[in-house]
Specification:
Layout: H1 2-34, H2 36-39, E1 43-46, E2 49-53, H3 90-106, E3 130-131, H4 133-138, H5 140-147, H6 151-160, E4 162-163, E5 174-176, H7 177-188
Antiparallel strand pairs: 1-2, 3-5, 4-5
Length: 205
């Protein structure tokens, strides 16, 4: 009986070392060696200070910047998730209307037919860092007015930041909102006023 218990204990200890120590260390080491940027959170720095992650969306409310997708979790990485409304839900219909009305106030001339769905619907995670090229281009007139720069220059900036489908097949063309907003500041300079707490900085819960 004691011999059997000894074998069980030894088996438990060996598996603990392999799966709880050796395997995590090996995976972490390989990740740091092969994909160091991704393994450390794909962080984005500006002037030596971390301002966000390429993988986690954050809120931008200033008229000088592109806005991302609505978030049911208020862009809180500790509370990731979507509203999970059914397509027939009245709550979903009401939420979409509210998102559209807010978007229309900030972007005059907008119509429902011209509105990309990703700007008026929550992402499944609440942390989507990307929007469609159409969603970015829709916001160009507002940003051009706020920054007093030609629209075409911002359009060209958007085009340079479009990520294509992976291998030309998978996913959809997309634009990373944080990267695009940082490019705005690099290209046109930081606005002298109207800065709020959501302007190009990490959103913390």
């Amino acid at each position: 009986m004691l011999k059997e218990w000894g074998r069980c204990l030894l088996f438990f200890l060996v598996l603990t070392v392999i799966t709880g120590l050796a395997y995590p260390l090996a995976v972490t080491g390989l990740a740091q060696l092969i994909f160091p940027r991704q393994a450390n959170g794909s962080l984005v720095a500006q002037d030596g200070q971390v301002v966000g992650s390429r993988l986690i969306g954050q809120e931008f409310t200033s008229p000088y910047y592109f806005q991302g997708r609505p978030s049911a979790s208020d862009y809180d990485a500790m509370d990731s998730g979507g509203p999970n409304y059914a397509p027939s839900s009245r709550a979903l219909e009401q939420a979409v209307k509210q998102h559209y009305q807010a978007l229309a106030r900030e972007n005059p001339g907008l119509t429902p037919q011209k509105t990309p769905l990703d700007l008026i619907t929550d992402s499944a995670s609440g942390l989507d860092p990307h929007i469609s090229p159409q969603a970015a281009l829709l916001q160009v007139p507002r940003i051009a007015r706020a920054r007093a720069v030609p629209e075409q220059e911002i359009v060209e900036l958007v085009k340079r930041h479009i990520h294509p489908r992976w291998l030309g097949l998978y996913g959809e063309p997309r634009v990373n909102v944080l990267e695009l907003n940082l490019a705005l500041d690099r290209h046109f300079g930081r606005p002298a006023g109207g800065v709020n707490r959501h302007q190009v900085q990490v959103h913390r819960p």
